[in-house]
Amino acid sequence: MNITIREIESKDYSSVATIFRDVLGILPATDEAVAKTCEKMKDDNRYRTFVADMDGNVVGLATTVETLAFDHPDGYIKVNGLAVSPEFQRCGIGKMLMERVEKLAVERKASMIGLASGFQRTGAHEFYEHSGYQKLSFWFRKSI
């Protein structure tokens, strides 16, 4: 397999939307919604989305935002999404994507990388723990 980790391009939006829906179960991630969001994100350098490109096909993604917190005044990187197409899972692509996120954190002098992962994604939890991430809390949300 020849995998390249690169920044997202507009030609990738539809493939990224498919991965969000099929792998992460985020059904509102229509092609149009992903394109609109990506276009907003590209004008704000705090947001970065990386794709795993295999011979011109997107087979995985990691999307991040750099943010501040009182306990991380130098900022930290929050992974908003990490997903790999099922047929390419357990091939090292998720590791490659997270290594690129870790490189971004070093480049930005961020003090931490954080993420949330759905309860049902037990395989992802094992992956994160194996990659050195600690399970520290639950994440709560309320739609407004």
Write structural notes for this entry.
The protein contains four helices and five strands. Strands 1-2-3-4-5 form a five-stranded mixed beta sheet, with helices on both faces. It has helices spanning 13-22, 31-41, 93-107, 122-130; strands spanning 3-7, 47-54, 57-69, 72-84, 113-115. The mean pLDDT is 94. β3 (57-69) and β4 (72-84) form a beta hairpin. By secondary structure, the chain is α+β, with helices and mostly antiparallel strands. The radius of gyration is 15 Å and the shape is globular.
Q: Could you describe the largest sheet, including whether it forms a barrel? A: 5 strands, mixed
What is the number of beta strands?
A: 5
Counted by DSSP, the helix tally is 4
**N- and C-termini, Cα separation:** 44 Å
Strand content: 25-35%
| Helix content estimate | 25-40%
Largest sheet, order of strands side by side? 1-2-3-4-5
Q: pLDDT under 50 segments (min length 5)?
A: none
Radius of gyration: 15 Å
Query: Per the principal axes of the C-alpha atoms, what is the gross shape?
Result: globular
One letter per element, helices H and strands E, the order comes to EHHEEEHEH
Helix/strand class: alpha+beta
Question: Could you report the average pLDDT, rounded to the nearest whole number?
Answer: 94
